[in-house]
TrEMBL record, chain A:
Subcellular location: Cell membrane; Membrane
Region (Disordered): 1-50
Organism: Actinoalloteichus caeruleus DSM 43889
Record's protein name: Multiple sugar transport system permease protein
Pfam families named in the record: BPD_transp_1
InterPro entries found in the cross-reference section: MetI-like (IPR000515), MetI-like_sf (IPR035906), Sugar_ABC_transporter (IPR052730)
Transmembrane segments annotated in the record for this chain: 57-82, 112-142, 154-174, 245-263, 310-331
Coiled coil: none
Family: Belongs to the binding-protein-dependent transport system permease family.
PANTHER family (alphabetical): GLUCOSE IMPORT SYSTEM PERMEASE PROTEIN GLCT (PTHR43759:SF1), TREHALOSE TRANSPORT SYSTEM PERMEASE PROTEIN SUGA (PTHR43759)
From TrEMBL, chain B:
Protein name: Carbohydrate ABC transporter membrane protein 2, CUT1 family
Bilayer disposition of the protein: Multi-pass membrane protein
Signal peptide residues on this chain, from the entry's feature table: none
Organism: Actinoalloteichus caeruleus DSM 43889
Subcellular location field: Cell membrane
Coiled-coil residue spans: none
From TrEMBL, chain C:
Record bears the keyword Transport: yes
Keywords of this entry: ATP-binding, Cell membrane, Membrane, Nucleotide-binding, Translocase, Transport
NCBIfam families, per the entry: PRK11650.1
One Pfam family this sequence matches: ABC_tran
Record-linked InterPro entries: AAA+_ATPase (IPR003593), ABC_transporter-like_ATP-bd (IPR003439), ABC_transporter-like_CS (IPR017871), ABC_transpr_MalK-like (IPR015855), ABC_transpr_MalK/UgpC-like (IPR047641), Mo/tungstate-bd_C_term_dom (IPR008995), NA-bd_OB-fold (IPR012340), OB_MalK-like (IPR040582)
The protein's name in its UniProt record: Carbohydrate ABC transporter ATP-binding protein, CUT1 family (TC 3.A.1.1.-)
GO MF term set: ATP binding
Organism of origin: Actinoalloteichus caeruleus DSM 43889
Length: 340, 281, 392
């Protein structure tokens, strides 16, 4: 028992006056932090009354949230896999039948799917890259500004808070010929939203505008973890501002950056609202979400739509997997115990 | 930092002011633009001017006189408030357990809610569409409230458990020593400390629900439960010939106001909420 | 005010950890008693059981003769001061101190009177309307004390109340805690891991280790008559020197040279059935520069010549560290060192710490002769740690 506490003991009898705070149990101590010391040895087998009632309370508290989340996602996911294996068009309900993987073959050989997939990837990569840069700049400004910090932070929250559809309409009207203040920015009389390249650029712009502040806030959380002393030490060691940023801040912030990237990448991959309002997917600007929605709700083809849903789900899972494996992104909250 | 001297400080202040202005312009221009549109008269609507030449409240008057908009506004408010209330209550319970209690399956719960936070909502649209039609939930308030709760729960759980971890729980013991019953200890000491976190979470969840478009688009079909974001995308104008731009802009401004107010008053809390959840990685 | 009795009190945590074992303590009315021991030895657990914040696994806790094992904290009429102070951040200083009185449903006038009185005693009057977050560490500490004393409870429990203060403030507060306790005459149980605090504050000190009480006694008694190696090493600063000793004809072979057995030591050895090996302990302050010792004293002691490693001049006296060539450390000593979490109980390997007069001319690098008082030497059983020199 005592040996394991070794490193925690500061105050030895030999040093009467300098033994400051005993690094004993943290304030959260009490029941929050059971399984230490003897726990691993004998705790598993015997559950005492106290422990059992703690578990009961915990399960009781978590059950409603867990049930809702599972009921609304778990079952539908299974159902959607089942739907994806059916021919099921609501306009011809009588034709419903099990078709195995036929829907998958149909989707995966369709050029619409691959165009949308490409568009989605392009928007995801480009917007997340821009957001990372802009977001970092914004985070630095919000974190370090010496004047008007409240003003900057408040303004930055506006894009985060505003309804995406509202922002999308603002961008749409801004680029609509005649109506918009930006319409004639590049070529007078053109209609930027009716051309694939410029439409995609505008979609990306709208997406970047809306989500950069969120990225910046996540990054700012990371910035707050960089100790001021570390930066001072670095400048004493002769590092200029840029070197301080690259050599000190970025490595310390790396976990926060990866989490922000993961979140935003997955979020960008689901892009829907902006495209729906800006182009409705015309001129080959559909994202996979838009395409799936078109098949589901407009064409009422549940079989094909569900197939796309499942494929999108798999893509997202793959992206998350790659992030976790490649960069070792720690999922936020995955480490609820210890460390901090 | 302060050791850099007076004139230098002034230059630095100027530089920061410029950067700040840039941020403010970036953040506000699209909002100001849609406001500007909402105040334009039909005649000047298509002049491309950033600032209206003629101001009018006609657009507001017209949308506020249609049930199409008013009903949607009622739906939006009702659905978002109910979903927020439920999500915050359920989230508080779960977050308390996660932050304070030791139980098997804690990691699983955290993992599952993380998965849901990253889940592509479109993947749920077809099964939910089908299931809700079977259960009679399609195009009803509960039909939207349920997915809203589900997708805001992860957010609520993260933010709240981050807040809960910050509460010095020793205070609970102190209160008991001071003669409080467990109930009093909770009401007089823990609840006042937890309230700001719960409130912040409620704002974040409300923003999330208020913002949704995809579920509202796919799980509703009539005015009965259609929310404003969807309703305004369906605006066609009073007549076939009328351009809905003015009405859409006015409706957009109306649903933006609550957000701006929340951001203005609770900036600090929102930032704290978003960042505290993020660093607990 | 009341007496508190712990009768074979044991605590096993839900996870199976045995934190406190069969603790027996009888605390008299008005007594100031200290629980001391290294971190993790079960002091807080013991205190929390007295408070009612932790259940007692077995044994009995009696306050004023009544068994209170199953009473909620609020029904025990005991006040507690926490290491983190546990001040309610959303309440002002006044409201913090009034909190227990409010819960006790006292009328406003009485509450005001009591709070003002406590604030006056603790010199907090001008801070009454501030929030705890705006106070300094020392002020917060005093608010925590204030919240405890306003109630006039049967007993105070304090869990390392001073350990978050800086060294100087801690010494000041130590005195005022002591004065306050004398003034109020309230039974007080005080937990600390700092032996200096334990020695200076308490009427009696309870030394704990690994959940087991090692010895209970007045500070001076523990210092002079430690029951075992652990107490000997834990109490006193700098810590007692320990050197292994082998019994040779008529004396003890140690790294300090051959030491002759005085009558007292011989009796101790005989009581213990003449073991082959013992551990010899001697405190730094029982050394003196041999050149400053008169013949009469010299006769009562022995001398040792060694290489002076380090000299620390404290002004009033000098700490002189000698290098010892000491290979055989007993397992007990190793464990003890590990247990107290520091390498300087017993004196770090191969080193002898002595405290000599300031006038000693000793210099680093010298081979210098020191005298030590054989009358103060203690002998310990290497296997059990028991102090053999204690007269039964
Ligand atoms: N809530 C708990 N659950 C399990 N073990 C605990 C708990 N609190 C303390 N312990 C264990 O009990 C032992 C004694 O702890 P404590 O009384 O806090 O020691 P001290 O106050 O002397 O530093 C330690 O080994 C510690 O790890
Ligand atoms: Mg302790």
């Amino acid at each position: 028992m005592s040996g394991e506490r070794l490193s925690e003991d500061q105050a030895a009898p030999g040093s009467p006056a300098d033994g400051t705070a005993e690094p004993g149990p943290s304030p959260a101590g009490g029941s929050g932090r059971g399984g230490r010391t003897g726990g691993t040895r004998s705790g598993r087998r015997t559950l005492t009354e106290g422990q059992r009632s703690e578990r009961r309370l915990a399960l009781l508290l978590c059950a409603p949230a867990a049930l809702v989340m599972i009921a609304v996602t778990g079952w539908p996911i299974i159902y959607s896999v089942w739907l994806s294996l059916q021919r099921y068009d609501l306009r011809f309900p009588a034709d419903q039948e099990f078709v195995g993987l036929a829907n998958y073959v149909e989707v995966l050989t369709s050029s619409y799917w691959w165009t949308s997939f490409g568009v989605t990837l392009l928007i995801t990569v480009v917007s997340v890259a821009i957001e990372l840069v802009l977001g970092m700049a914004l985070a630095l400004i919000m974190h370090r500004t010496i004047v008007g910090r409240g003003l900057v932070r408040t303004s930055a929250l506006v894009p985060y808070g505003i309804v995406t559809v509202v922002a999308a309409f603002s961008w749409r009207y801004a680029w609509t010929p005649d109506t918009g203040y930006l319409a004639n920015l590049f070529a007078p009389g053109s209609a930027p939203l009716t051309d694939q390249a410029s439409a995609l650029a505008i979609i990306t712009l709208a997406e970047v505008w809306k989500t950069t502040p969120f990225m910046a806030l996540l990054l700012m959380a990371g910035l707050a973890l960089v100790p001021d002393d570390l930066l001072k030490a670095a400048s004493m060691d002769g590092a200029g501002p840029w070197q301080r940023f690259i050599k000190v801040m970025v490595p310390v912030m790396k976990p926060a950056i990866l989490v922000a990237l993961l979140f935003r990448t997955l979020d960008a991959f689901r892009i829907f609202d902006n495209i729906y309002v800006l182009t409705s997917g015309a001129q080959d600007t559909s994202s996979v979400s838009i395409l799936a929605n078109t098949n589901l709700i407009q064409a009422l083809n549940l079989g094909i739509g569900s197939t796309m849903s499942v494929l999108i789900f798999l893509s997202v899972a793959l992206i998350a997997f790659v992030f976790v494996k490649l960069f070792g992104t720690a999922a936020p909250g995955s480490d609820t115990e210890g460390r901090r | 930092m302060a050791a850099f001297g007076g004139t230098d400080t002034r230059a630095r202040k100027l530089r920061w002011s410029l950067l700040n202005t840039l941020v403010v312009v970036y953040a506000l221009v699209p909002v100001l633009w849609i406001m500007s549109l909402s105040f334009k008269t039909p005649a000047t609507l298509n002049d491309g001017n950033f600032i209206p030449r003629e101001w009018t409240l006609e657009n507001y008057r017209s949308i506020l006189s249609t049930t199409e908009f008013l009903r949607a506004l009622l739906n939006s408010i009702g659905i978002a408030l109910i979903a927020t209330a439920i999500a915050v209550v359920l989230g508080t319970m779960a977050a308390y357990a996660i932050a304070r209690l030791q139980f098997p399956g804690k990691r699983l719960l955290v993992g599952v809610s993380l998965l849901i936070a990253m889940f592509p909502q479109i993947s749920l649209v077809s099964p939910l569409f089908e299931i809700e039609r079977t259960l009679g939930l399609f195009d009803t308030w509960p039909g939207l409230i349920l997915p809203y709760i589900t997708f805001s729960l992860p957010l609520a759980i993260y933010t709240l458990s981050a807040f809960f971890r910050e509460i010095p729980w020793e205070l609970e013991k102190a209160a008991k020593m001071d003669g409080a019953t467990p109930g009093q200890a909770f009401l007089k000491v823990i609840a006042p400390l937890a309230a700001p976190g719960v409130f912040t979470t409620a704002i974040l969840v409300f923003i999330f629900c208020w913002n949704d478009f995809l579920f509202a688009l796919t799980l509703t079909s009539t005015e009965r439960s259609r929310t404003v974001p969807v309703a305004l995308s369906f605006f066609t104008g009073d007549s076939q010939f009328q351009d809905p731009t003015g009405s859409i802009s006015a409706a957009a401004v109306v649903i933006t106001v609550p957000i701006i107010v929340a951001v203005l008053f609770f900036q600090r809390r929102i930032v704290a909420g978003l960042t505290s959840g993020a660093v607990k990685g | 005010m009341s007496d508190i009795v712990l009768d074979r009190v044991t605590k096993r945590y839900p996870d199976g950890a045995l934190a406190v074992q069969e603790v027996n303590i009888e605390i008299a009315d008005g007594e100031f008693i200290i629980l001391v021991g290294p971190s993790g030895c079960g002091k807080s657990t013991t205190l929390n059981m007295i408070a009612g914040l932790e259940d007692i696994t077995s044994g009995e806790l009696r306050i004023d003769g009544t068994v209170v094992n199953d009473r909620a904290p609020k029904d025990r009429d005991i006040a507690m001061v926490f290491q983190s102070y546990a001040l309610y951040p959303h309440l002002s200083v006044r409201e913090n101190m009034a909190f227990p009185l409010r819960l006790a449903k006292l009328d406003t006038a009485t509450i005001d009177r009591k709070v003002n009185e406590a604030a006056r005693i603790l010199d907090l009057t001008q801070h009454l309307d501030r929030r705890p977050s705006n106070l300094s560490g020392g002020q917060r500490q005093r608010v925590a004390m204030g919240r405890a004393i306003v109630r006039n409870p049967k007993a105070f429990l304090m869990d390392e109340p001073l350990s978050n203060l800086d060294a100087k403030l801690r010494v000041q507060m130590r005195t005022s805690v002591s004065r306050l306790q004398k003034q109020l005459g309230t039974t007080t149980v005080y937990v600390t891991h700092d032996q200096t605090e334990a020695m200076t504050l308490g009427d009696r000190v309870v030394v704990m280790r690994g959940g087991v009480v090692q010895q209970i006694g007045a500070p001076q008694h523990l210092y002079e008559h430690p029951a075992n190696l652990f107490v000997a090493g834990f109490i006193g600063s700098p810590a007692m020197n320990f050197v292994p000793a082998a019994v040779a004809d008529g004396g003890l072979a140690t790294a300090l040279g051959e030491i002759r057995l005085t009558d007292r030591l011989r009796r101790a050895m005989e009581r213990a059935d003449a073991p082959r090996e013992v551990i010899l302990g001697i405190r730094p302050e029982h050394f003196e520069d041999a050149s400053l010792v008169d013949d009469r004293m010299r006769a009562e002691g022995d001398v040792f010549t060694g290489l002076v490693d380090v000299v620390e001049s404290m002004g009033s006296d000098k700490y002189v560290y000698y290098a010892l060539d000491e290979k055989a450390r007993s397992a007990e000593l190793e464990e003890l060192a590990a247990d107290s979490g520091s390498s300087d109980v017993p004196a770090s390997e191969g080193q002898l710490v002595t405290r000599l007069s300031a006038v000693s001319p000793v210099r680093e690098g010298d081979h210098h002769e020191v005298w030590f008082d054989l009358g103060k030497v203690q002998l310990f059983d290497p296997s059990t740690g028991r102090n053999l020199t204690l007269e039964a």
